[in-house]
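Treating backbone geometry as a discrete language has practical consequences that deserve illustration. In the encoding step, the backbone of a single protein was reduced to a row of integers, each denoting a local shape. The amino acid sequence and the backbone structure tokens for this protein are reproduced below.
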Amino acid sequence: MHLVRTAVLYAALALGANAALAESVPDMAALSALRAGDMKKLSFHQEPKALPDTPIYDAEGGEHSLAEYRGKYVVLNFWATWCAPCRKEMPTLDRLQADLGGAKFQVLPVATLRNSVPAVKRFFAEDKIANLPVMLDPHGALAHQIGVMGLPVTLILDPEGREIGRLIGDADWDSDSAKAIVRALTAAE
């Protein structure tokens, strides 16, 4: 009898743990249903994909890692100052960060390849980009390792730093659809 009670107790604990875990994992089908307009280009993965720990750099040359953003959902945008679609979408990313950024969410633009710090700062000043950090992938190492073949490309990372979605091309990240997706993700935590 003691063995049966122990088995029932462990089964109940396992089911409870799985239910608690399921609550913290976003429902990809529900997220996909929120896609409208440009967000229809956003593809969610069935399984999260691990990312390499390749460094990125701030405007002062300081080395950083995507691991610094663990605990948050991240919209990781690869862009360049010379890329017209990238320049078009950057203000929408800035507004998304201004509206929803905080303890659970961060927009992280990473200028990849041929982008000087003065050029990035000049573009940010001209377009009044005030809520985003200046980050660089100067040799395209991170972009190359995760399969960025053109620009812009935006990844959505979960709080464990894994890629759960990818959008190729520019998008309106300030749209109702984009905000609904971010709100749904952060509500799952």
Remarks:
- The two ends are 39 Å apart (CA to CA).
